[in-house]
Specification:
The protein is mainly alpha-helical and 717 residues long. It has 35 helices and seven strands.
């Protein structure tokens, strides 16, 4: 079985899925049984894709052997002369088969007739009928003595001598331009009006009438239909196909696509798709060709995006492309209309839309849907509400929490800002992490060991951007259970050296985001088991600066009164004891301020007090100060605020005040610190800043400010 179904007409009764065989058989009986003195012209009317060619094939198959079939394709020829030439070649060929002993006479008579009606005798006889039948006779003078009526009478006699019916099939007339359409009808009615000859013409009558109308006085479609009435004796519309039959036909094709791909929708996905398909798309299926096109469309797109998008959403958007192409391109080109939130309370990229803009967007969408009629418009709107729930916030009183946005992301819905483009590009854009790839890494968290997962991630992590990976993991955290959360957390904390510490004003660094994710994972763990596991994570984590970010997240305070504390006060002391111990070990291996930020050192010093080791902190700083007099500056910086802003994005020191001075005195002998600062930098004059809380303090002015405060306090003591 082939995946793609060509748009190919059927040939046999067994292939007839739309109960048109009886219709075709009746036409075959009419064209083959009557002994008409004049030609009979039958019009088979239908829209493109409705199955006209299939019906013509069924008619041919039912025509008995004693009836001569002539298949004439006028759309192969762009000029009237070529059209005449081809038509009479076809008739001559058919007559030649029935009257084999009169080939030369047939060639002469049809050649003369063709020359008289087309004024192209030399060309037709030399290169057309004559050469076709092996006759090259050139005629000119005698035609002046014979009327066209006489020539036609001779052709009539030849057809009567054949003693059989002729049926000429002409398909796809609606593909021709206006002049070619007129030529075909004149050919059939005026030039080809032969006895015992029937013409079966298939075309879209609405298109042909519209094309012919402007050629006549009234210049409208009615004039075109009036012209057709003069030509067609038996106008027949294709039998209307039942909507249910077209629906089932389309779904059978879709089933064959799934079978070929080895793919199966879940019961819920099937139900969701069928309900939308029946309401929004079945009303638009008016011919089998649309069903074929839809099956081919999903047969193309699903293999490209399997595992990368929500397949039910993909099938719906592909259906919109096939059945409502104008609206498909409207969606594709107006992403923000469908992805933004229209409620003022929405915590979304596009929140806070004015009432005037809401009215504007609503009118645009309504206008686009109005062309489909009120009833279908409502069905399409309900389908849009399911596909793009954000639209409900425009039409109804709806809002969605952040958790719902995360769910859309995890389900790879088209309504997610991060997936919308994928449904139209058919690729995972550069920089995104493929969901198939992501699932290959983390799809078995409930069964894989942390050691195996670490080995797997070690091989792969350098292929990805860590911030992209953490963003993707963050969206999946709500769906993980306790076992999955523990396994993942144990692995993530061991890759701290891969996470960037670059921080922007409003955005977490990758290192901070990872620590945040680990804390959220730990909330999946029962409260009584959480502290033990957190301590294990801190021991596994590296480097120490990442450990500090991790323990900071473990100290997160409750956001809501009803929310449970992440760790209780006693457990937080256990965390502090570990950090102090780890800090002392790190200090033996690296300079005290080598890797930590000033506020982190300050935080650790406060932990010394929390675990009743203040004297150890004092000794640690005193030993550090004795190592190098210039270390005095680093100690003062620890107790000085660091800020950054949009106007000054690079961090700087400011606001060393009395509180800073007094807090520093809790951890180091200030007399010694002053002495060491003078030895290292000399006695410096402080240059007052305009705003002590916000203006930058240079290293020199910070030392000067400390020295001034020390001396001022000495004078007042």
């Amino acid at each position: 079985m082939e995946l793609f179904r060509p748009d190919r007409p059927i040939d046999t009764k067994n292939d007839d899925k739309f109960q048109r065989y009886a219709f075709a058989k009746r036409i075959a009986e009419i064209v083959s049984s009557g002994k008409y003195h004049k030609s009979l012209v039958i019009g088979v009317y239908g829209k493109w894709g409705a199955g006209k060619t299939s019906v013509l094939n069924l008619i041919r198959n039912e025509v008995p052997e004693n009836t001569v079939v002539v298949n004439f394709n006028p759309w192969h020829f762009s000029e009237q002369q070529q059209l005449l030439k081809s038509f009479f070649e076809s008739i001559a060929h058919a007559l030649g088969k029935k009257l084999t002993t009169q080939k030369e006479k047939i060639a002469e008579v049809l050649g003369d007739y063709a020359e008289s009606v087309g004024s192209v005798a030399d060309q037709v006889i030399t290169f057309g009928i004559g050469s076709f039948l092996g006759v090259g006779k050139k005629i000119t003078e005698k035609l002046r003595k014979v009327s066209i009526e006489d020539l036609k009478s001779r052709v009539d006699d030849l057809i009567i001598d054949a003693n059989c019916n002729f049926v000429v099939f002409i398909d796809d007339i609606d593909r021709l331009d206006v002049s070619e359409i007129q030529s075909v009808f004149k050919l059939v009615k005026l030039v080809g009006d032969f006895p015992r000859t029937s013409y079966v013409l298939s075309f879209d009558d609405d298109l042909v009438a519209s094309a012919l109308g402007p050629q006549y006085a009234s210049r409208d479609k009615l004039a075109g239909y009036a012209f057709l009435e003069k030509i067609i004796q038996l106008p027949l519309n294709l039998p209307k196909t039942n909507k249910q039959v077209l629906r089932n036909y389309t779904l059978e094709l879709v089933d064959k696509v799934f079978l070929h791909l080895g793919f199966k929708l879940s019961r819920k996905e099937t139900g969701d798709f069928i309900s939308k398909f029946d309401e929004a798309f079945v009303p638009a299926i008016d011919n089998p060709r649309l069903g074929v096109r839809y099956a081919n469309s999903i047969g193309f797109s699903i293999p490209l995006l399997l595992g990368e998008v929500h397949i039910s959403d993909l099938m719906i958007i592909e259906a919109i492309k096939v059945f409502y192409p104008e609206f498909y391109y409207f969606i594709r080109n107006n992403e923000t209309f469908f992805l933004r939130m229209y409620t003022q309370s929405a915590r979304d990229l596009y929140s806070g839309v004015s009432e005037d803009e809401k009215k504007h967007v609503k009118k645009i969408i309504d206008d686009k849907l109005s062309i489909y009629g009120d009833k279908l418009k409502q069905s399409l709107m309900e389908m849009l509400f399911d596909l793009f729930p954000q639209i409900k916030t425009l039409y109804r009183n709806y809002s969605y929490p952040d958790e719902t946005h995360q769910l859309w992301y995890r389900e790879k819905r088209i309504c997610s800002n991060y997936y919308f483009e994928r449904y139209f590009s058919y690729v995972v854009k550069e920089g995104d992490i493929s969901d198939v790839y992501f699932n290959s890494l983390f799809g078995d968290l409930s069964t894989v060991s942390s050691d195996t997962l670490k080995e797997r991630l070690e091989r792969e992590i350098d292929r990805m951007k860590a911030d992209d990976l953490m963003f993707k993991i963050k969206q999946h955290v709500p769906a993980y259970n306790a076992i999955e959360a523990e396994t993942l957390a144990k692995v993530l904390v061991q890759f701290g050296d891969r996470y960037s510490n670059t921080k922007h004003i409003l955005i977490y660094s990758t290192s901070e985001l990872t620590a945040y994710i680990v804390e959220k994972l730990m909330r999946k763990i029962a409260a009584g088991e959480r502290c033990k596991l957190c301590l294990e994570l801190l021991k596994l984590s590296s480097p120490f600066e990442f450990t500090m970010k991790l323990q900071y997240q473990f100290r997160t305070e409750k956001e809501h009164v009803m929310e449970e504390s992440f760790l209780n006060p006693y457990e937080l002391v256990n965390i502090s004891e570990y950090i102090v111990s780890r800090f002392e070990n790190e200090a033996k291996l690296n300079p005290l301020f080598a890797s930590l930020q000033d506020f982190e050192v300050r935080e650790i010093l406060n932990m010394y007090i929390e675990v009743n080791k203040q004297d150890d902190a004092n000794k640690l700083l005193s030993d550090y100060l004795g190592f190098d007099n210039s270390c005095a500056l680093n100690i003062i910086k620890v107790f000085t605020s660091t800020i950054q802003s949009s106007s000054k994005p690079k961090p700087y020191k400011t606001n060393f005040n009395n509180d800073s001075y007094n807090e520093m005195g809790r951890f180091i002998e200030l007399d010694n610190l002053y002495k060491k600062s003078v030895e290292a930098f000399g006695l410096i004059t402080y240059k007052p800043v305009h705003d002590l809380e916000r203006d930058e303090l240079t290293d020199e002015n910070l030392i000067a400010l400390f020295q001034k405060m020390y001396l001022d306090k000495q004078e007042t003591s």
